[in-house]
Amino acid sequence: MELHLKQGYYKDIRACDEIARGSVLHERYFSGSYRTEDYIRSYFPDDGRGRLYFAMTPRDEKAGLMVISRNGFTNEFHYLALLCVKNEFRGQGVGAWMLKQFEQMGREDGKRKASLTVSDFNVRAFEFYKKNGYYEVGMIPDALVDGIGEHLMLKDLT
């Protein structure tokens, strides 16, 4: 699938819930009073520009989104805070393409490693990241929500 990356801005946050809807992350974290937009909003600095990116199709459809912190984990590794692919685009390589874009940004910024966390209930995502070269360095119990652990994963970018 042909895609291009488009930076999102504060005004684009409302579109994120539609992309995340139907995912296991949305069901477990964002289907109640705490919404996808609330989580993404926390990654925006006061100037209204954040690190929200969309995977766009040639017809200008938003196929997926990712939220990154370029100085995330330990201020040394890029951190992938959220990666979601819209239901109708799943299984078409959108997630893998976005992950490669994230890793390339890390290399361009001179980062040695990329980091992310995966919820313990999200087995499919955990296997996806392992298949793409990430390895687990530990489990953080009750990281965001009581009763849900987060796998901390890294990938060498050098």
Essential attributes:
158 residues, alpha+beta, Aminopeptidase, 5 helices, globular, N-term/lysine_N-AcTrnsfr, transferase, Acetyltransferase, GNAT family
Write the layout of secondary structure elements.
Blueprint: E1 4-9, H1 14-20, H2 24-30, H3 36-41, E2 49-56, E3 62-69, E4 78-85, H4 94-108, E5 113-119, H5 123-131, E6 135-140, E7 150-156
Parallel strand pairs: 4-5
Antiparallel strand pairs: 1-2, 2-3, 3-4, 5-7, 6-7
GO molecular function: acyltransferase activity, transferring groups other than amino-acyl groups
Domain N-acetyltransferase: 11-158
Keywords: Acyltransferase, Transferase
What does this protein look like?
The chain is of the alpha+beta class and 158 residues long. The protein has one domain (4-156): Gcn5-related N-acetyltransferase (GNAT) (Aminopeptidase). 28% of the residues lie in helices and 32% in strands. The chain has helices spanning 14-20, 24-30, 36-41, 94-108, 123-131, and strands at 4-9, 49-56, 62-69, 78-85, 113-119, 135-140, 150-156. It has a 7-stranded mixed β-sheet. Pfam families: Acetyltransf_1. Residues 11-158 form the N-acetyltransferase domain. It comes from Marvinbryantia formatexigens DSM 14469.
